[in-house]
Amino acid sequence: MIFSREFRVRTVAASILVATLGVMALAGCQGGGKAVLKVGEYGSMTGGQANFGISTHEGIQQAVDEQNAAGGIAGIPVEVTKYDDQSKAEEAQTAVQKLVNQDGVISVLGEVASSNSLAGGPVCQRAGVPMISPSSTNERVTKVGDFIFRVCFIDPFQGNVMAKFARENLKLSNVAILKDLKSDYSVGLTDVFAKSFAAAGGKIAVIQTFSKDDQDFRAQLTSIKATNPDGIFIPAYYTEVGLIARQAREQGITAPLFGTDGWESSKLTEIGGKALDGCYFSTHQSMDNPDPLVQNFVKGYEAKWGKKPDALAALGYDSAKLLMSCLTELAKQDPEGFKALQGNATPVNRDARKAAQKKLRDLIAATKDFAGVTGKISLDADRNAVKSAVVLKIKDSAFSFATSIQP
Ligand code: PHE
To answer: How far apart are the first and last CA of the chain?
Structure first.
């Protein structure tokens, strides 16, 4: 048989099309990419807060791997795209821009440090991409807009917890504060603590300041020592706190130091060692809590990562679990919308994706009594979790449960 050239070209083109469609169908192709649910993550994997990002990522990856091992979400696997923001707010903003504009993620998990979440949040809000911070506690973080959530408590609560603990448990009456001027977290907590401690009848001896990444705190400690405080409140991150503790003891300051969740890291005592014995900090969960939910998480984490988890890992885990539970619900309630979230964004599915992300936002906002490793998570009208805090005591480089304080 003799075919015209035109016919042959058309036949070849048609078979290429059929073959391509077949491959796409096999791969479960949706909206111009393979059928995965892309979730973004930004965090500090390097820099002064590297441990925050590393722990958080391990918790997130554990949750995602567990979900995928159990068949994904309605059969679709979840994939995490992660960027290191080097513990810097400018890099945090760039990272979220990449996740949202270039990678087209459905939703973003992060950051830990409040200043970084305050830099990344507006990018998500403008794009209509739901963001869940595992652990940023500064009150302003979720005020950025209605697409910004968190699974942890906020600093107006945490600052009160430590003021109450300082007055009632440690029986302190004259406290000095050392705060990081470059950190929204540190500045916010200083205000709350100072007000609350004074309201409880205590006196603030002096407030001294430093800047993130400083290494020499001797001048501030000399001024603090001159006011003869019976305790020093340091709402800051582990790297600086470890150095401050050592330098304080070198200067003969014996008063207890106490602080907040930014202390939470195994690096804290690697840096501060013995200088931190008898010190206290507030955080989100004790890994010694006998609750089976906590102990199952601890076991899974140890098996996967070969070390003990911290509260950051638990919060990362909870943030990913909550997001995936809302995606599971979305798949049930709106299968078409769920389909639009799979794979990459294309000009064709753009509007459907936006609508589905809005629905996902509504589902997250409605979170009530979600059973997290860090406690029951219910989100209030400001998209903050209302949860209790624990206070841990440091002794011989180990953290042990001291008390728990309800909202
Ligand atoms: N809450 C801290 C912040 O907002 C971050 C943090 C959370 C650090 C939990 C350690 C543990 O900046």
So the answer is: 84
Residues 315 and 224 in one domain: no
The strand pair at 203-210 and 174-180 is best described as: parallel
Q: Is 235 in the pocket of ligand 1 (CB under 6 A)?
A: no
Q: Is residue 245 part of a domain?
A: yes
Distance 10 CA to ligand 1 centre (A): 62
Check whether residue 147 and residue 166 sit in a common domain. no
Q: Is 236:186 a contact under the CB 8 Å cutoff? A: yes
Q: What is the pLDDT of residues 209-246, one digit of tens each?
A: 999 999 999 999 999 999 999 999 999 999 999 999 99
pLDDT, tens only, 132-173 = 999 999 999 999 999 999 999 999 999 999 999 999 999 999
49 residue type, one letter: Q
The candidate with the shortest Cα–Cα distance to 34, out of 67, 66, 80, 76, is 76
In the structure encoding, which two tokens stand for residue 401, read together?
A: 């449960």
Give the number of the atom of ligand 1 that is nearest the alpha carbon of residue 137.
4
